[in-house]
Fold this protein.
Amino acid sequence: MLFEDALMADRPQIADYLDYREFLRDMFAFCKATESHFSHRFLAGRAGFSSPNFLQLVIEGKRNLSPTSVRKVAKGFGLTAKERDYLECLVLMNQAQNHWERDEFYRKLLSLKKGATVRKLRKAEYDYFSNWYVPAIREVAVWEGGRLTPSEMAQRLDPAITSKQAEKALGVLVELNLIEQDEQGRWQKKDAVVTTGAEVQSLCVANFHREMIPLGSQAIERFNAEERDISALTLTVSRDRLPALKKKIVAFRKELLEMARAEEGVDQVVQVNIQAFPLARALAVADGVADES
């Protein structure tokens, strides 16, 4: 029994994954290591696939999974009903065609996770990027000696938020180890960095920009020209020169950060949006990817 328990401890836990192809790869390796007869042909036969190398093509990104093939894969690996539901949602998120679909399925994945610690941390990461006021509260929390109440912090933001939102933001920031209270209850910043897995990084960053860009648009009406700077350039560049353009933007961001770190007597939080995106370009042909059901 102890040997069996040790094996189960090594079994890949699907709730730890945000890329279904990585899970399938690790699950296949686990099964092959624990069952001498396990192979792609054996799995295909047990799952009901006509092609013996279908799973290998999926793992390599050459095929996608359909709802029917998800159920077959779950059967082949002997997944539980809950694991199958998670796999199905994970596949839908990974194969989503737009940001809104990915966001919807990621939120569902968070609700399906069994590990409370992992789920709570990933939800905190998601909330940090998906609510514009969370990073803003991190800056405001240390004002006036770090003694502001959530209600006072909420009123310092522009536009103002509710006290409940401020309390939520503080909880997220504490969970992510970005702020803490000292023995006197004063808020202090910590130097931790918010990071996400590669699979959801683009989702979180997209949520962040979708929150911030409308605020920039609203600033045209809400603030005088002396209080803001909203400008734009329309350029023509070759595809090969785009990396150089992005490097200049990165260097400029770093310069602004260094300037902000050296600032004393701060009295406002400023959002700087720098945008560079195609307005016109040559057509590109995207190859379709088939799947087996």
